[in-house]
Design a protein that fits this description.
single chain, 4-stranded mixed beta sheet, two-stranded antiparallel sheet, 14 helices
């Protein structure tokens, strides 16, 4: 580059204080030799022209305050509590009961990390709180299984439903099986005393937990025979009564029954429920022989459910295990069966000379109204039944009511199971005393081994 080109390219900068100085390059006036931008200095870099209007500014704009946005302001963090030692020590009891506020809880727990004496006291109080809770039953709610099944069946009906009259047996065998699953090997040999009424006297038989399950196995076998299933009793009994079959099983066993008896009993119970489900509701009219009497299959399944519950209570008492009554609906069905059997039991006692004779010389003809007793059951499974007193075939009539008995539902079942003497039954009694006594003893005579 020549000097002339240098004069053409660069001009002298005007004095910013001189407002009359010309603006722009001045070709006629050469720059000083020592001035910046002279011929001996390098050319200054060209300003960058790559920026666009959309690029952010080199200096960021100030941030917008949250107060200017209209949004809700954040809640300020709560300040921690600063409490004295004596106050924190007084809060240890409430802390152990989980009754402190969140702020108090945080303050106490921070203090426990620094104070050994309060930490030991807190542990002692927390252990004491565990002793305040009452012991709960280890057994499930007896209505739980029924409610779960009903909920499932409401969503998807069963292809092969179990008849309504067989569901109590299904439920009680399942509850007893759950109890047996929880007991240990030694408890299978715990002593159990079976109790029932014979005439006017209470009698009993000593056995074990395993012996009770063997008893249920053999008596349930009477229902199995009616349905064409295998008889669990290998040796034939002298008479097909529950007592004779049980004694035959116990006598012919090479060894006392052990927990191994649970498997055949459970399998037989499942087979009974499955068979009556496939047979349908019409099978409920099949007669089941108990030796001295017969019951239709629908009533026999209720009878087996009742005895399963009663003996499950005997087992639970022997192993010190809590056990609850059946669900109210199933308990009502069992009470109804006992009430329907009372007229026949009363007539049998009268024929045996164990009950007072009727008001008339001869039994009331079938279908004719006669003297009646009102049986009122309170509590679970409650209801009212009119019991004919003069003949099983007589019609109960409120116009001929001569007595009234009030009993709790579970207590009536214990009476019918022979576990409560008739004289000790806590019953509300109004009316004919002889009729009341006869009905109470007739209820106890429904029991058997």
């Amino acid at each position: 580059m020549t000097g002339t080109e240098a004069h053409d390219s660069y001009g002298e900068k005007p004095d910013p204080e001189d407002h009359n100085a010309p603006v722009g390059p001045q070709k006629d006036t050469p720059p000083p030799e020592n001035a910046p931008g002279g011929p001996s200095d390098p050319e200054p870099p060209e300003p960058s022209s790559s920026r666009t209007p959309d690029d952010p500014p080199r200096i960021p704009m100030p941030r917008t305050s949250v107060e200017d946005t209209g949004l809700p302001l954040p809640e300020p963090a709560p300040a921690p509590l600063f409490l004295e030692h004596r106050v924190l020590k007084s809060l240890l009891g409430a802390w152990a009961l989980a009754a402190c506020s969140p702020e108090e809880t945080a303050a106490v727990e921070d203090h426990l990390g620094a104070c050994g004496a309060c930490a030991d006291e807190a542990l002692r109080l927390r252990d004491a709180v565990g002793l305040l809770h009452p012991p709960e039953s280890l057994d499930l709610d007896p209505t739980l299984r029924t409610r779960v099944l009903e909920s499932c069946l409401d969503r998807r009906p069963p292809r092969i439903p179990v008849p309504e009259w067989a569901t109590p047996y299904d439920a009680e065998t399942a509850r007893l099986d759950a109890l047996l699953q929880d007991i240990g090997d030694a408890e299978w040999h715990a002593p159990v005393r079976l109790r029932w009424f014979d005439g006017d006297e209470q009698t009993s038989r000593r056995t074990t937990v395993a012996g009770v399950i063997a008893h249920l196995l053999t008596v349930d076998g009477l229902v199995a025979l009616t349905l064409g299933l295998d008889d669990p009793l290998e040796a034939q009994a002298n008479t097909p009564t529950p007592e004779a079959r049980t004694e035959a099983f116990w006598t012919t066993s090479h060894f006392p029954p052990t927990r191994s008896v649970r498997t055949p009993w459970r399998e037989q119970a499942h087979n009974l429920v499955r068979t009556v489900a496939f047979a349908g509701g019409g099978s409920g009219r099949l007669p089941v022989s108990y030796g001295a009497f017969e019951l239709p299959l629908r009533d026999s399944m209720l009878d087996r459910a009742f005895e399963t519950w009663v003996h499950a209570g005997d087992i639970a008492e022997a192993v010190d295990y809590p056990y609850e009554p059946p669900s109210p609906r199933h308990l009502h069905a069992m009470i109804d069966l006992g009430a329907r059997m009372l007229p026949t039991a009363l007539a049998a006692r009268r024929q045996a000379g164990l009950a007072t004779p009727g008001q008339t010389r001869h039994l009331v003809p079938a279908g004719t109204p006669g003297r009646s007793l009102r049986l009122e059951i309170e509590g679970l499974g409650g209801g009212e039944w009119l019991i004919p007193l003069d003949s099983p075939g007589a019609l109960p009539s409120p116009d001929h009511e001569v007595a009234h008995i009030a009993l709790d539902g579970v207590e009536f079942c214990q009476l019918a199971a022979g576990h409560v003497p008739p004289e000790e039954a806590a019953a509300g009694q109004v009316g004919d005393r002889e009729a009341i006594r006869d009905v109470l003893f007739a209820a106890a005579s429904l029991s058997r081994m």
